[in-house]
Amino acid sequence: MNLSDRTVLVVGGTSGIGRELARRFAAAGSAVAVAGRSEQALAELAGEGFGTFRADVTDDDSVARSRDAVLARYPGLDTVVTMAGVMLMEDLRDPAHFAAARTTVDTNLLGTIRVIDAFTPHLVGRGAGTVVTVTSGIAFLPFPPMPSYAASKAAVHAYSEALRAQLDGTGVDVVELVPPAVAGAGQQVKTSALPLGDFADETMKLLAQDPTPHEILVERVLTHRWAERDGTYADLVAQRSKALSMLPGRQG
């Protein structure tokens, strides 16, 4: 992917990884727009020169309005990055967790689908473009305190695979970004997490490859992505299950 001449929309780019990638695309020479819910963050990004648009990925009408506004200002849009997501802990022994599960699936999975549905006709009509979906190392190696997050990201992985197959021959590529735990990305992570700047450096190098890999896998996420293949899955899940002590009902 030539990073210097793209017209990029980052949905969910008001914080963390999304905001950093928006800045990196812009620094590389691309025109970049950001969509999200935070009015304050959007105002800050507008001050940096980004096109900014209000969008709530859990709301069909909001996504449609933002699409129309984006395409009116950026008719040459060729890259859509679907970054919006939430990470919520859930204790599955407490039925009250369902509210968190519903929010997680509606944002992470259905929100991704809403954004893709909104912009796919435009990209297919151009005969060229890229959709970048965002999953997680947790899609391949679950983190037990966040079961619906893991499930939603695994679902986005499967959806990305199917989307790539269905768009084959249209000129529209589907690239899946698979982050590990990233410090400074708004996640509840340990200090051992990959620094945001390092993650962005490695990610942009991978995106710049020709051809761009179907999955963007930084070095730190490889143990997650290939745990089943490498025979380390059961041991790693057992290790990560120790984090269940983070749940309020499991303390003590």
Could you walk me through the main structural features you see in this protein, from its secondary elements to its overall organization?
- This protein has 252 residues and is α/β, with parallel strands linked by helices.
- The protein has a single domain (7-250), classed as NAD(P)-binding Rossmann-like Domain (Rossmann fold), CATH 3.40.50.
- It has 9 helices and 9 strands.
- The strands form 2 sheets. Strands 3-2-1-4-5-6-9 form a 7-stranded parallel sheet, with helices on both faces. The chain has a two-stranded parallel ribbon with strand order 7-8.
- Helix 5 (147-166) links the parallel strand 5 (129-134) and strand 6 (172-177).
Quick take:
The protein is of the alpha/beta class. It is built from 9 helices and 9 strands.
What does the secondary structure layout of this molecule look like, with pairings?
Elements (H helix, E strand, L loop, with lengths): L6 E5 L4 H13 L2 E6 L2 H9 L3 E4 L5 H14 L5 E4 L15 H29 L2 E6 L12 H20 L5 E6 L4 E2 L10 E2 H12 L7 E2 L5 H4 L1 H4 L2 H9 L11
Parallel strand pairs: 1-2, 1-4, 2-3, 4-5, 5-6, 6-9, 7-8
Helix pairs in contact: 1-6, 3-4, 4-5
